[in-house]
Amino acid sequence: PPWLEWPTASAAAALFPYGMSSPAGRRDNWQGAILLKEISAWSQDDDDNSLKLVTELETAIWRQACLVWIVLPIFAFLASVVLPFTRAKCGAGVSLCAGIPVLLLVAHHVWAESRAWHCCKGLLAPPEWTVMRQLGALRQRQFSVALGIMESVDLYTDLIFPFVARVCDFELTHNWRISWAAVPIVGSFVSESVHYVRFWGLALFFCVLNIASSGILGLREIQKEEEVRKAEWGHHAPGVMPRVSAEVFYAWARSATTAMMPSVTFLCEAMADQRKWIFDKTKDSAACTNSRLNLALGKIDETRQRSYEITDFELEEKVAFSREVYFARMLIIKVFLGNVLSMWLQSSFLALTFNQANSLMREQVIVSMTISGITLLVRCYRISGQLGTVGKVVSGLIFFFLVWTAAKVYFAYKCADHIWNITTGCVSLPKEAITT
Description:
By secondary structure, the chain is an all-alpha fold. The chain contains 15 helices and 2 strands. Strand 1 (419-421) and strand 2 (425-427) form a beta hairpin.
């Protein structure tokens, strides 16, 4: 298997102590020959199975990613604009029948996640299973599957949202301009800009930005990372499973994030953290021990001492950099662009259409914002600790938008005209601007 490098020469010497040239050796070592043949066949079969698992893992992720970022937007457009029985209506939103694509997506998500999870788990050695169990990576699966389903549902509601806003555009944009005009300094400029951009146009821009940054670029990266992996593994003999490096596991984690499979993402991240430790055969353990003593005595600094460690220091640095880039991109693209902006705009939509919307439409908007809030809190909790100060600063900004959004929803039920600004408080609309 990929986690066991069988020392062929030593094994042969142990199995054939008398040699193979003498009659006694040929007579007494026939059992050793059979055993070595069985070991070689078992190792080859295991390599073939591991390569099949890699192919199935990447196929399951790719299909789910295409379904999420290509097929689902098409369904959202058809359900919101084209199909008459699900078409968006001002005050009523979209019909519940528009949720049928979500049910199909959830069914495929469960199947694809199960396939990808077992393929990824099949690439681990039994000792690594124990480590993953102790780290809690296996225990998180049920929660992670539920989180992935919530992300898919949230994406679908975000895709439908611009078309719902479009059918309410006149009153919606007019009232939004009035609310911005009350904001000091930048209010007048934003109010004039909104007149040309329109509320639904900005919502559509955020939606397209999310699809382009998380979806289209993510799909391209899945293809690119698969090509890079095949190029790295190309110099190995056909049918031989090479060692899966930490960078490959991080690449699978990025791909699983694009496919909205948090369970596979968390497992690959945990395995990448374990695979970054590589034994360097060129280093001397005695020199490593002496370097630690010299560090304690102050003869050398920490940077020089690390160069004596018997692990591959350069590879660790490379993996650490890839790890920081991976988490930073997830926090900015996945969380901020994918969740925060749409959630903030939906809270404005709730306040501006409060008198027009029925209770079902308001509940749909609130559920969408709640799902976005849960997913971004989980992401921020996991990522902020991985990026140090930068991660905490970005997470603080995201948390500020979350509190701002929650306040707008709260005051939508408290203010007389349902509109609240962070700088001016409750906004009073002219009588002719209030629609009932």
